[in-house]
Structure formats: C-alpha cells, structure tokens
Write a structure and sequence with these properties.
Elements: H1 3-32, H2 40-59, H3 61-72, H4 79-97, H5 100-122, H6 126-147, H7 153-161, H8 167-190, H9 205-218, E1 226-230, E2 236-238, E3 245-249, H10 256-274, H11 291-305, H12 309-322, H13 332-338, H14 356-372, H15 380-392, H16 418-435, H17 440-445, H18 450-459, H19 469-477, H20 484-497
Parallel strand pairs: 1-3
Antiparallel strand pairs: 2-3
The structure holds zinc ion (ZN).
Amino acid sequence: MEHAQALEQLMQLQQKMSAFGHAMALLQFDGGTTAPAGTAANRGQTLAILSQEEYLLATGEQTVALLTELDACKDELDPKKARMVELLYKSIREMQKIPMDEYVAYSQLLVESEEVWRTAKQNNDFALFCPYLEKIFETERRFALYCAPDMDPYDYCLGKYEDGLTRQTCDEFFSVLRARLVPLIAKIGQAEQLPDDCLHGHFPAADQEALSLALMETMGIDMAHCGLATTEHPFTTSLGSHFDVRITTHYYEDNFASSMYSVIHEGGHALYDLGSDDSLAYTVLDGGVSMGIHESQSRFYENLLGRSLPYVTHVFPKICACFPEQMQGYTATDLWRAVNRVTPSLIRTEADEVTYAMHVMVRYELEKQVMSGALAVKDLPNAWNNLYREYLGIEVPSDTEGVLQDSHWSFGGIGYFPSYALGSAYGAQLLAKMRESVDVDACLARGDFAPINAWNREHIWQHGCLYKPGELLARALGEPFDPTYFTNYLESKYSELYSLT
Ligand code: ZN
C-alpha cells in the first residue's frame, strides 16, 4: 500500500472514531442534564452497542494492519501524523494485551460499582462498597501488569493520566508542597479569620445563570461553540470535536460563589478544548493532552486569575447587577477576601486553594499503599481519617464525608488525583512565565482576556495532544517544572490576605 493511501485511511479511521465518540458523549451529556429519570436503561442499550462497535473498529484486523504498516514508516511521516500513529498504536496494543472477557467483565463491574458507590455514600456504608473497591484495585493492578509487565503497577496507573508521572516524581513534588504548606496553613489558622458573609443569603438560580453567562463572556469564551447546562457535579465535555464544547454548573441558592467558581473552572477547561488548532479536529490529537495540563488551565482561570483582586474588582459591578440587594453595603475587596478564605475542611471539591493539595496528598498516599499491598482496602476508612487528622487537623465524622466522597475510585480512576495538584502548580509557573510578556493584572483590571488567552493558545491550547505533557510544558516554560512557583505564590498572596508576618 502506498503511504498516501494509508494516510487517507488513517484520517478516515479517526473520523469514524470521533463520530462514535460524539454520539456516546452526547448520550452521556443528555443523561446528566435534561433526560427524564426513567430513560437510563434505554440509553444504556444504545451505549452498549456503540461502545462494542467502537471497540471492534479500534481492534479490528484492518485497523491493526494499517497501524502496523504506518508504525513501521513512522520516521517518514510529518510530526502530526507520526504522533497520531504513536497514540493509536499504543492504545490498540494495550487493548490487545488485556483478554477480551476480562475487559468486558471489568466494564460491567465499573457500571455496577458506580451505582453501589452512590448508595454506599448516601447511607454511609463503606462495607457495601468495599468488595467492589477490592476488585477494582485488584483489576487495575492486574491490567497494569498485562500492559507493562516491567513497570510498577501504580506508576503505570499514574502515567495513564499524566504521561511520564511516577511515584518518585509525585513523592518529590508532594514533599515540596508539604514542607511549605503545612506551616502556612498553621499560620493562617492562628490569624484572624476573613469574613465571608457577603457570599451568604438568597441568590435565585435564574440570577446566578445570568451571572454565569456574563462570566463566560468576560473570559472570552466563544459562545457560538460552547454551551452551559446544569448538573449535580459540574464538568466539561467535547462533543465530536473542539467545535462543540459544553460546560455544566450547579446552583446553590444560599451561596453564589460555588457556581461562580465552577463556571470559571469549567470555562478554563472549555477554553483549552476550544483552542485546539482546527487542523486537529476529528483526530486523536484534538483537545487536551492530559489531566494535569487540563487542570493547569481550569485552575489557572479559577484561582490564579479568578480569585485575584483585579479580576474580582472587574466583575464586582456585574455581580451587583445580578444581586443588587444582596450585595448592598459590600465592596469588591470584601468579596475578594471572602472568596479567598482558608479553612481546613472535609470535602476536596469545596477546599480553598491552600488546603486543596493536602486533600490530594491523602488520596495519593492511600492509593500508593493499597496498590503496593501495604494497606488493605477494608482498612481504608481508618487510614483516611488518620491522614485527615495528620494533614489537616480535622476529625472525619462519617465515611460519606470521608473515604466515600469522591466518585473516582468507583469508575476505576486510580492514579487520577495527583493531576489536580500538579495542575495547580503547573499553572502558577505558567503565569509567572506569561507575566514576562503580558501585563496580566492590567488585562484583568480592564476585563480584557484577549492577551492572556492568546498566550495560552500559542503555548498550550493549539497543540492539542501533539506533544507529551512534559514536553509541552517544557516548551511553554523554557525551564524545568518547579513547584516552588506555586508555594511562593500561595505564601505571598495569603500573607497579604491574612496579614501574616
Ligand atoms: Zn477540573
């Protein structure tokens, strides 16, 4: 076969995969947003058939032959095509190493375990979820050994979410954070607490929705290609390509800041997805490259920009326009202080910028121990509570607010959590780099995101999955990753907010 013909087939294969992905993502999005409660089984039937077809397309003889041929002449391909072949070939080879019956059995287990986890969380019943979680950890370990027999299984799991990440790099990263954050949290704990009464009151969902749209507009999100919906847990998804991105939020009528910062966070994910170069659409290179880089963008907009004084001051009049009575008597500085209040708390997704990484460290330490066999799954609740006492100085009153709070383990997301903390740290260093050529504070003060977004587009978004996350970051930063940018940023910001000496 001529290269030209094979390359044409490569593009057609990816278009088909995108179409399957589009249909399945839309069904899932519908399930989480507007679908009536009794329609899950109907959707499940269609999803099962589509995912089977997708699996057959990806692992079929024709696909394997095509990729084997292209892999052999990878060096002659242009960088984009070579990377497409690399990514597709890698995922197919891994799929082939896992026996089909074990793969199907695990998919079924995960569907069940998400249901069981939900019930267990509702009823504070870890014992109900425990046998499922044991099987999940056991299967993740077994599959890791099938795919990479020479690698430590937990290193393999970490690499699934952030290519190249290992226990060693995580340990080093977290030890830097721990050394600097533990004393900072202690100092803040002794300082006078920041008031946050301006966040509390009654904020009707309809008015919050008006604010959401205004915020998306300030961020420079292309509303012709990005929609907003409401769900129990906020998320971002791309449908088919970066030409159709959806974000969701959840409105709590007694506190508008929760949705406000969800919208800015998910808006950051959306900007990243929307910013892929158009030539990458309908290929495996379209969209974000890893969870860590994705979080570097979402947490960049949410915290580094969204919780800064210039941005809060810029959006304050918009907030007052949505909630004129509730905001009466408060200033932009009151709001800035309120949204930066630090309190050790039980729930990761509601944690402030300073304590957030400690929540991630608890999960990382426990996953590492369970994967190595040092900790039994049944002992997780106790170990969880001990680490919350040690890292955050708080008592966990129930497993619902403790070990059962996150959905990640129930869908097999072992190794996922560290990317949240890594993303925060990547973002802080990216901001320092951006400041060398962009007057970020002046842009925020006048509500002009164009220069900020242009920088991110040039260095991060447009590349999609062309580079591995480490390489993308090194090219953007021009120096090695250094987590002290993040700890310095936190120390300086919170020393000012809490008047620490
Ligand atoms: Zn996120």
